[in-house]
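Q: What changes when pyridoxal-5'-phosphate is included in the input?
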Amino acid sequence: MAAGRSYADPVSVEHESTSQHVETYLVSAGRPERRAGSPVNTAVEFTSTYAADGDVSYARSGNPTWSSFEQALGGLEGGRALIHASGMGAISAALSLVGAGGTVVAPDQTYNGTYDLMRAFEEAGGTVVRVHATDTAGFLAALDGADLLWLESPTNPLMDVTELDVVLARARELGVTSVVDNTLATPLLSRPLTLGADVVVHSVTKYLSGHSDVVLGATVVPDTDRGRALGERVFRHRTLHGAIAGPMEVFLALRGLRTLGLRFERASANAAELAARLADHAGVARVRYPGSGAMLAIEVAGDAAAADRVCDATRVWLHSTSLGGVESQIERRRRHPSEPESVPVNLLRLSVGIEHVEDLWSDLDAALTRGLGQD
Ligand SMILES: *Cc1c(COP(=O)(O)O)cnc(C)c1O
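A: The predicted holo structure follows.
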């Protein structure tokens, strides 16, 4: 491993050890130490290397901007975090915990990049046992003899929720390494490490950053012997495969994280209101909403072409891929050839932003009426 700050170096987990509410923690976490004249924000260091014999040595293994974000996210999830170049970079590093030829138990529908990566893992000789995300008994049965459990809850875009506590407890009993993609729930709704998960992965691109201006990922492991050993392997993967983040992107992500509490509160309230209204809309055949969070999906009362017309007709909602930004986004996921066929062709994924809910509603209502009226 390259010299420099080791992953095993102590990083304090502030959120656990203070009685602060999470909104307060988010504002203060990962700041430089307060002393006379100290800056309020961690500096962005545009440097590839450091003079010898200090805490940091070469910027591929670590740098102070990353450490600030990692400290903040580590505390939020209740563990030790690493920043990666993208969500997929983090997912690749976590999936590397299972050796070639191993067996992974995973939901039969996940974020399509993860789904594709698992397919590549199978092509290389690995085995993936796929279970429906809500089929707890199916997971319990599949875990025997598995090497790695992969969960995503809620799933993107079907919004299926897995009984994390039950499935993770069984994985732990059997010694199966478990990974949870916590991108959609965020640590504000779900903290899988507290339920026994070994690794949490995030697309930091989404809610944690929140402004659709960076692509980043993260892994978090518990601060235990087992967690630190896994974290060391993930750290080694990041350093040696080299999928690392630029310092400016991480600075922006940390700035975005400051307002996660406010953004998620507003977006979640908007999503709950829209889910209730959409359930009564003549243009909507089914609403998929897990009951909390800022994401939902609808199946329009029409075919794929009708769903496409709805996306084309919105003015406030941004027709685009991705999610978790301050702006509301709408997309028909099956327009991507890589999307699993279990996702209905007329399904629209809605990432609800922080705009005024009445503007979101009137725009969506009009787009649904226009899009479906042309049938
Ligand atoms: C977007 C997303 C990813 C991939 O993250 P990138 O930052 O785009 O690489 C992984 N998992 C989920 C659930 C996502 O929504």
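Observations recorded in class: The first strand starts at residue 80 and ends at 84.
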